[in-house]
Amino acid sequence: MPRLAYLGPEGTFTEEALRLLDPTAERLPCANVPAALNAARSGEADGAVVPLENSIEGAITTTLDEFAWGEPLLITAELLLPVQFSLLARPGTEIPHIKRVYTHPAAITQCRAFIARELPDAVVVAAPSTAAAAQEVSLPGSPYDAAIAARIAGEHYGLVELATDIGDRSDTVTRFVRVARPGQLTEPTGSDRTTLVVFLADDHPGALLEMLTEFSVRGVNLTRIESRPTGDGIGRYFFHFDFEGHVADARVGEALAGLHRICGEVRFLGSYPRADGIAPQIKRGTSDPEFAEAGGWLARVRAGQV
Questions:
Q1: Of 200, 243, 274, 283, which sits most exposed with the smallest number of CB within 10 A?
Q2: What separation in angstroms does the CA of 52 have from each of 57, 112, 236, 304?
Q3: Which of 25, 1, 4, 7 is closest to 153 using CA atoms?
Q4: Measured between alpha carbons, how far is 56 from 109 in angstroms, rounded to an integer?
Q5: Residue 63: what pLDDT?
Q6: How many angstroms separate the Cα of 158 from the Cα of each of 88, 99, 128, 136, 137?
Q7: How far apart are the C-alpha atoms of 91 and 85, rounded to whole Å?
């Protein structure tokens, strides 16, 4: 039974994602994303589950930066989790009496309309996580009257649900990934995603275009690109890429080799099955048999068999 670290405390959306990814795993709650990933790196846990991006808020920058700068980890699986927020309070609390609300900043952003409409006079305070907010509200003498969190948090901490599905968008989704220490990769499924972190060798006109060309000419479709500051000054960035395909695919392997030739550093973060099961559309001339046939043709040309 694996032991998986996750963004805690108990009752976070990350715990819910972990339960879906591996219902049998022993769960190790951690204070933050770096702590969860470091538990996997150190061997305290066999892996970790962390949020990577949200359909409203975009990328989870802490996770992106940990993947770029921390000791290497490989993504082995992903999950798309619908996110529904609830207003949770101690039994006997009524919405008109709520004066102080505790929740994560992302929940504040995603529940603006509900807060403005139903809690116009309430003070909303940022918490480390939605579950930490629910935990705090459950304590006797808490200065907060209610929390905005996942329903699972209310179940953990004995809170009642005063309102459900209070997000501004009902179709909000967060993408979670399971990571492990480097080892054997998952086998290609025909519906895979690969993730990289790429550092420029130097800053010059067309540097980003050169990287994108390595994907384009081989028919590799990008599904996400993010730039993050290197910390070396204004205007210095590195890049996160998600794209269709598995490193075992000829077109993907050729693209990675091309990036390795022109970039300062390429950090491979894994090839793993796509949560949505969507298979890529293979552009003419970029399938594995076509790469193999072209390689055979080149070998014959080099041998003088023209």
A1: 283
A2: 11, 22, 22, 51
A3: 7
A4: 9
A5: 94
A6: 9, 20, 20, 11, 10
A7: 18
Phi, psi of 14 (to 5 degrees): -65, -40
pTM as predicted = 0.89
Rounded CA gap, 79 and 73, in Å? 17
Per-residue pLDDT, 236: 87
**What token pair was written down for 41?**
């790196």
In one-letter notation, the amino acid at residue 132 is A
What sign has the CA pseudo-torsion 258, 259, 265, 270? negative
Q: CB 49: neighbour CB atoms within 10 A?
A: 29
Among all chains, which residue has been given the structure tokens 């099961």? 277
Which is it for the CA torsion 297, 298, 301, 306, positive or negative? positive
pLDDT at 233: 80
- Cite the DSSP H helix spans in the chain: 13-21, 33-42, 61-69, 105-110, 112-118, 130-138, 151-157, 207-216, 250-262, 288-302
Residues in the chain with pLDDT values less than 70: none
90 three-class SS = coil
* All residues at 6 or more sequence positions from 162 whose CB lies less than 8 Å from its CB, including other chains: 86, 87, 88, 89, 93, 94, 95, 146
Number of residues that make up the chain? 306
Burial of 144 (0-12, 13-18, 19+ CB in 10 A): buried
Q: Which two tokens stand for residue 208?
A: 């980003």
d(CA 216, CA 198): 16
Distance separating alpha carbons of residues 108 and 211, to the nearest angstrom? 37
CA angle 256, 261, 263 (to 5 degrees): 85
Cα separation, 85 vs 133, whole angstroms: 13
Other residues' Cβ atoms within 10 Å of the Cβ of residue 59? 17
Q: Which residues pair with 88 in a beta bridge?
A: 147, 161
Locate 93 and state its tokens: 């609390």
